[in-house]
Amino acid sequence: MSSKYQTNILAISGPTCSGKTALGVFLCKQVGGEVINFDSVQIYKGIEIATAKPSEEEKQGITHHLIDYVDPNVNYTSADWARDASEKIRDIESRGRVPVLVGGTGFYLRTLRQPLFDSPKTDIELRERLKDIHERRGPENLHRMLTRIDPVAAERIERRDHVRVVRALEVFFQTGIRMSEVQPLRAEPPDFASRIRLFVLDPPRDALYEKINARTDAHFAAGLVDEVRQLIATGVNESGNALGAHGYRRVCEYLRGERTLESAIEKSKQDVRNYAKRQLTWFRRESDAVWLRGFGSDPHVRHQLLSDIGGFAEVGPSAPAII
After folding, report:
1. SS3 sequence, 243-264?
2. What CATH fold (topology level) applies to the domain 124-185?
3. Which residues neighbour 273 within 8 Å (Cβ) at sequence distance 6 or greater?
4. Which of 109, 170, 218, 261 gives a 20 to 30 Å CA spacing to 155?
5. How much of the chain exceeds pLDDT 90, in percent?
6. Residue ranges of domains in the chain
7. Which CATH superfamily is 8-116+191-221+279-310 part of?
8. What pLDDT sits at residue 3?
């Protein structure tokens, strides 16, 4: 593509239930865009009810990529996503369209912009053991373990950032090499990384939690337990990334007789609320994020987004005028 038509790559993120899908579709209509999903659960085929995958009606004719993309038994990593997203970005831009990244998995987006070193594939059994420690003893216990193994990495990672802590522990236990020793070996960012513009939704906390609770109730009412029961019956691994996600993990515990249905529902609500907090914490560490104070459907949020995009150099060769 000629440098004359170099586009900004737009990214919409924020906590779960904040209206990212609706805002992404709206933005695509304004700039001639196509959505690339970066939600780590929407990627999986057959995992439906608790993922909030957009319906055809919600897509409003906008092309969506990397949804219903991977078998649920595949251990699909952030590096896998970054590779596939890069291909989609180049394809979309080659057709004169604008890539619009939409999702809430911040680690995926960071891996795209700051590639990881060549790390080993996840050992599911090891991850389950570390997950069990996290559940029983809390993230601080895992961080203390990392401090003994790799104090340099532990100093760089916040105590409650259990995702990064777990990955650092996995690298050491699988390879015998400290994360701090291999991180400098990461690959160069892709040539388009500097053109990614990140916008993060930040709705009022009480209203967000109300939406999360209501949506969780709706998922169970829509047959979430039966969906999980059928997935397990067809051979989907309960310990894999797909059914280990919030919204599914507690249903698996209920089906194993480890908690009541009422407990599964309430614990799922708590899990999702906690996940929303972690998402906001994650994106506050992204120094270039532009914060949108509200839900994706709020008119003032959409106005701010279009105003901010209008301040960028060029939106795209075939994009309609932004009004």
Report:
1. CCCCCCHHHHHHHCCCCCHHHH
2. Histone, subunit A (1.10.20)
3. 209, 212, 213
4. 109
5. 66
6. 8-116+191-221+279-310, 124-185
7. P-loop containing nucleotide triphosphate hydrolases (3.40.50.300)
8. 38
